[in-house]
Write a structure and sequence with these properties.
This protein has about 625 residues and is of the alpha+beta class. The chain contains 18 helices and 22 strands. A 9-stranded mixed β-sheet has the order 1-6-5-4-7-3-2-8-9. It has a 5-stranded mixed β-sheet with strand order 10-11-14-12-13, with helices on both faces. A 3-stranded parallel β-sheet has the order 18-17-19, with helices on both faces.
């Protein structure tokens, strides 16, 4: 037996490891199984290149066992194994010098940046986060005696020969008193499923009972026969590791259910990622049905490195607009032991992000070209992702011009180019600008939509939460195009043509009317404007100026807008049609009380059409209406 001291200058490295990594201590199991997988795959590689001719690779597995009585957790592999000299080199020298370097680099950053993605490289010494003593019993594939290494969490260790006869490594963790959760079967199963569900080597965790088919001559009441089989916790060959040509639609859907067993809705479509130059990346992304709430969708994409789960926070790797998708990305080229700020500046990561953006855009264009009808039916379920991408990624914005759709209130769908061609004649104003009309709520803006439709106008239905931001971007990218919501102006003024209506009222009458209306109508809510409009148009119309409303919405949804506008009270314009007979009647009515009643009734009707009549105002309106028809 040999004894020794691990050669590290930080004497208290084990308490430091435990303290620093405590918040993430469960990753020890992922690390040990990753090491076991590497050892197994290395053996396969050596066998393939003829450097392990005497070795029968067979069908190796990794086994995880709990021994509650002895308070130990065992991780056993059938991989390459180590000689005594290799234990000395790889465990005593390399692993712990790596540990020291890691601690030195990050120990002062605990408070400021704990965003270390994954902890690959922590490897073997992460065992000491949960174990008071660690043993390694290992036998190399070479014809040399097995070795037994023991360390109790101090810099001291023992190393001696062992009588292990089979190739591979067994790591025995003597679980600390305060970490006994890792002796519970349910907890270990949870971690194996979380981190190792798709490891490339089968992982055995106990046994399970499997029901066999009944024999043909069995009676109906006879129980089905059963047998005990190894409980393999993982799928070593998940869909993303295969070529797209090997998979059918049912395979992609089956894998989606494997990833999200509690998700009952089928994905709308998938995108298979597969690139090996200039970086290595595989994966499958799924478009689920979306809602307009952009916050609840995130953190559903899982990041793997060589089939080992790392994180489901892929911000910085996947473009932000695609973090609402689901699926898997696997890449050995994403640096993991670094802070997020470094990650976002990393050249390889930027290339990966650009590749994913391009691949998604190409897939959407193909879907649109191949089956437009199906794409249109799915539009409302995917539009929030596409519109967010158009807003945040310039390259995606350019590509999306070919497949982004603009639905009308009547359920027709146009690309912008098609829309422009359809409306240019009727929607061009006197200054040569193309005015695109839209609504954001079919019910609340119904009367405004109907009036615009009566004029022969086409109205888009744009109701996503970021529509104000998107319209700003569209107007900035297209010459002489304005987007105007149908309730932002009276219908005559939505698309201003040359002809002007003549007012039936004289300037003096208009002045008298405006003075009375301003005194009667609450000025903190409405700005009164007199307009000469068609006599058949409504007498009172409530509008929200496009610019002010849009800036306010942009401020409320974050980014853009004008500072402080998000908290401003709602302000509306009250447009009074001077050519309507009711307005003339208001002007000519002699009694003050009747005048006020007519104004309040007309105002309430305008508020009703704008969905603004609520509470006390609604009660007063109903009472007044009944009084008027008695």
């Amino acid at each position: 037996m040999s004894k020794g001291t691990i050669n590290v200058s930080v004497e208290n490295i084990f308490p430091l490891i435990k303290k620093f990594l405590y918040s993430d201590h469960e990753i020890f199991l992922r690390e040990l199984i990753s090491n076991a997988t590497d050892a197994t795959l290395k053996l396969k590689h050596l066998a393939n290149i003829g450097e392990a001719n005497d070795v029968a690779y067979g069908n190796p597995k990794i086994e995880v066992k709990i021994d509650k009585e002895n308070k130990t957790l065992h991780i056993i592999d059938e991989g390459i194994g180590m000689t005594k000299d290799e234990v000395e080199k790889y465990i005593n020298q390399i692993a712990f010098s790596g540990a020291e370097e890691f601690i030195e680099k990050y120990k002062d950053k605990e408070g400021e940046d704990t965003g270390i993605i994954g902890h690959f490289g922590l490897g073997f010494y992460s065992s000491f986060m949960v174990a008071s003593k660690v043993e390694i019993i290992t036998k190399s594939f070479k014809d040399e005696p097995a070795a037994h290494w023991v360390c109790d969490g101090s810099p001291n260790f023992t190393l001696e020969e062992a009588d292990k006869q089979t190739r591979g490594t067994e790591i025995i963790l003597h679980i600390s008193e305060d970490e006994t959760e890792f002796l519970e079967e349910g907890r270990i199963r949870e971690l194996l499923v979380k981190y190792n569900k798709f490891m490339p080597i089968p992982i055995k965790f106990g046994m399970k009972t499997e029901t066999l088919p009944k024999p043909e001559d069995a009676k109906e009441d006879d129980p089905a026969p059963t047998k005990e089989v190894e409980n393999i916790i993982n799928n070593p060959n998940p869909a993303w590791t295969k070529q797209p040509t090997e998979l059918e639609e049912k395979d992609y859907k089956g894998f989606y259910r494997e990833l999200y067993p509690m998700q009952f809705e089928e994905p709308l479509f998938h995108i298979h990622l597969n690139v090996d130059y200039p970086f290595n990346l595989t994966g499958i992304l799924y478009f689920p049905k979306m809602t307009n709430d952009m916050n609840i969708q995130k953190d559903k994409i899982q990041l793997y490195q060589n089939q080992v789960f790392v994180t489901d926070n892929v911000e910085g790797i996947v473009p932000e607009f695609l973090t609402m998708l689901r699926g898997v990305i696997d890449s050995p080229d994403i640096p993991l032991n670094v802070s997020r700020s470094y990650l976002q500046a990393d050249g390889a990561v930027k290339k990966i992000s650009s590749y994913i953006t391009r691949k998604v855009a190409d897939k959407l264009k193909t879907l649109f070209n191949n089956n437009r009808e199906d794409f249109e039916q799915k539009w409302n379920d995917i539009k929030v992702v596409i519109e967010y991408g158009m807003l945040t990624e310039d390259k995606f914005f350019e590509k999306a011009q070919k497949f982004a759709l603009y639905p009308t209130v009547d359920g027709d769908y146009f690309t912008f180019e098609e829309l422009e061609e359809k409306i240019k004649e009727n929607h061009t104003d006197k200054d040569g600008k193309l005015v695109v009309l839209y609504a954001s709520n079919k019910d609340e803006q119904h009367s405004y939509i109907q009036e615009a439709k009566d004029k022969g106008y086409t109205i888009l239905m744009l109701d996503s939460p970021i529509v104000s931001h998107l319209l700003q971007k569209l107007e900035g990218s297209k010459e002489n195009v304005n987007f105007v919501r149908v309730d932002s102006e009276p219908v005559e003024n939505l698309i201003k043509k040359e002809e002007n209506q003549v007012s039936k009222l004289s300037d003096e009458e208009k002045e008298t009317l405006k003075t009375f209306l301003t005194e009667t109508i609450p000025s903190e809510k409405f700005t009164v404007q007199l307009e000469a409009m068609d006599s058949k148009a409504n007498p009172f119309v409530i509008t929200e100026p496009e610019f002010m409303r849009r800036m306010k919405e942009m401020q409320q949804t974050g980014g853009g807008g004008m500072f402080g506008m998000g908290n401003m009270p709602e302000m509306y314009n009250l447009i009074v049609n001077t050519n309507h007979e009711l307005v003339s009647e208001i002007l000519n009515t002699k009694t003050q009380k009747k005048k006020e009643r007519l104004v309040n009734q007309a105002l309430d009707l305008a508020k009703l059409s704008k969905n603004l009549l609520k509470g006390e105002d609604m009660t007063a309106f109903i009472k007044r209406s009944y009084d008027m028809i008695k």
